[in-house]
Design brief:
Length: about 150
């Protein structure tokens, strides 16, 4: 009989990865990053444990979407008060808070529970090329070039 091994919390080795979002398609970038945050790139992947790595995304202001999405894609948020719905287009949000676009796309691809919130805390997004995590020596994460060229 085969036994399933469950990695202990102490044995999880967390790496730091650096992703450059310049000229990357938003959805394709988000799926790759969400997969690394979940730990699906490791042999020790366990669905009910956070075995993922840290990911630093830079140049979030240079991410792109296809077609007419910059004018048509809408981002909604609500203040919780009556009449408090705010609606913003992709283009307007990209010039105001480009980090939020990448964060929202990746967060939607993580589990919608406490485990997903814990995984989301390991994501760091910055609009420019500079980031304060150089002490962790993040390794560049190679995304699939064929997927982003389409």
């Amino acid at each position: 009989m085969n036994k399933t091994s469950v990695p202990s919390i102490d044995s999880i080795d967390r790496q730091w990865y650096l992703v450059d979002a310049e000229n990357q398609t938003l959805g394709r970038l988000a799926t790759e990053v969400a997969s690394v945050l979940r730990g699906k790139n490791k042999a020790s992947y366990t669905p009910h444990l956070d075995t993922g790595d840290f990911v630093v995304v830079v140049n979030a202001d240079k991410v792109k979407v296809s077609g007419s999405k910059p004018q048509q894609k809408l981002y909604r948020r609500h203040s919780g008060r009556p009449g408090g719905m705010k609606v913003e287009t992709f283009a307007h949000l990209q010039e105001r808070l480009p980090e939020r676009i990448v964060e929202k796309a990746i967060k939607g691809m993580l589990p919608h529970n406490a485990l997903g919130r814990q995984m989301f805390r390991k994501l760091k997004v910055y609009k420019g090329a500079d980031h304060p995590h150089s002490a962790q020596q993040p390794q560049p994460l190679q995304l699939d070039p064929a997927a982003s060229a389409k």
